[in-house]
Target: Ribosomal RNA small subunit methyltransferase G
Amino acid sequence: MSDYNLVQFRKDLEQLPVILNQEQEEKFILYYELLVQWNEVMNLTAITEFNEVLKKHFIDSLSLIRAVPELEEKKLSLIDVGTGAGFPGIPLKIAYPGLKVTLLDSLNKRIKFLNEVIDKLGLEDIEAVHGRAEDYAKPSLFREKYDICVSRAVANLSTLSEYCLPFVRVGGQFISYKSEKIEEEAAAAEKAIHILGGDVKDKKDFYLPDSDIYRILYVIEKKSVTPKKYPRKAGLPAKEPIVK
Ligand SMILES: C[S@@+](CC[C@H](N)C(=O)[O-])C[C@H]1O[C@@H](n2cnc3c(N)ncnc32)[C@H](O)[C@@H]1O
Model:
């Protein structure tokens, strides 16, 4: 890990493939600097070492291209639910500037950090909003409006499907980033995915470069409109996930 550096980062990106120009690379570095600076006064990430952030946050976030090659298409809309310090939404926006991005998190201090990142990096067509997925998925401004919904490290797949699928337009996709083999969790989520209008379309698993760090992306296609009663009121999807 210690020999992992910017040169290796570029090579690993090429493998995905993700090609960054110099301006985009500078944005990643500035994002890293802001992350460690703000992390001193608020809890944003346990990973702070440069090489580790490149791999475990940036490469990991950008691995979405393995499952969704159409990311490069201009003007796709994407919402990142429970974005925290901006993962995976900010790396995706830097690498694919044509994306129209919404970052959603229930902790306002993280939204303040994200607004600073958006400002300092000069990102456009991106907004950071404060609130819970259960509340934001109700108003028509957000409901069934997105081509893609992503989420990393937020909840089990059943709960997460209730948070995320309502945001996705019919024909769009919800992609859940998972870090372990989750056969049981996925089996328990089958009913929820079905009720909410989704269908598991693909699973892409891989290891982060030169490591034994396993990742799997669950790609769920939105097949039909989510019934109006979902998501249930705030807190309920986590407390009582829809199960078999
Ligand atoms: C473990 S962090 C993961 C952050 C980021 N996605 C990552 O992978 O680094 C989970 C984040 O989800 C947010 N969160 C949890 N439940 C949420 C909900 N119902 N609606 C919106 N955000 C939520 C938390 O505030 C927290 O920032």
Observations:
- The longest helix spans residues 22-39.
- The first strand starts at residue 77 and ends at 81.
